[in-house]
Write a structure and sequence with these properties.
The chain is built from 13 helices and 6 strands. The chain is mainly alpha-helical. It has 2 domains: 99 residues, Tyrosine recombinase, N-terminal domain (DNA polymerase, domain 1), CATH 1.10.150; 167 residues, hpI Integrase, Chain A (Orthogonal Bundle). The protein has a 3-stranded antiparallel sheet. The protein is globular.
Amino acid sequence: MVPYPSPQVTNFSLEELLSDYRDYLVRERGLVDGSVQGYESVARRFLSERARGGDLDLEGLVAADVTNFVQGECRDGRVRGARLLTSGLRSLLHYLYLEGGPVRQLASVVPAVAGWRGSSLPRGLEPEQVARLLASCDRRTAVGSRDHAILLLLVRLGLRAQEVASLELEDLDWRAGEVVVRGKGRRQERLPLPVDVGESLVDYLRHGRSSSWCTRLFRRVRAPHHELTQEGIGDVVRWACVRAGLPKVGAHRLRHTAATAMLRARVRLPEVAQVLRHRSLSTTAIYAKVDEKQLRSLARPWPGGGA
């Protein structure tokens, strides 16, 4: 039996540990910024409960602490959020074990999250709601022209919030009419740039974006002119919902909206998968369940003519 490594450290500074963990996720795991931020958020919530006087005492950490944390954080019952939480927690515990700290291998005690692929329906916005969302942007202002371009990228191309936040000026190939998207796994793919999206981007670049050394496409309008983060893109969507009088939704809801709109326009599933850049067609197939007209044509009559 291989013995556990002997503890090398008894106390950690919370911020120093999080900084080292962040570097590990980038260098060793090769995770993109959005995943790093999510994992770091889980680590901060878990470790903050064990910070005492600025130092982090992990000597008494046991399996019950892990399961109690997961149960407390997953009370809302959302499968996706629970999976992200448990994945991040396993990563942290594995990292602490590899670093030789006073933590035994507890990653295996993180509870599994029950869930069945394809059991839920993706919920997109209706065309009328999309129109209200876009109309809520006052394109005469710098903020309005920027937000209109962001919303169109989300709802027409189905980009993820992180992908919109990562766009660089050089990613817009005006001659070819394409945009370079940096997706999951550090992949770079080219997508056609629809005319209305291109026109909105031109309007933003001419009237909404001040000149700066920053090469990121979307930035804050007011000083300091930092680039918009993934969370900033989500805020753009939520504030547009407020202005349009719609319930607040996240940026990913607009990705669902793009997918369902393509299927309603009779775009084939493989082509939808190419636009959304899904690695597996089974990931895209879930959207077929929202096309009620097509599904109704496949339904067999009930025996005996009952309802």
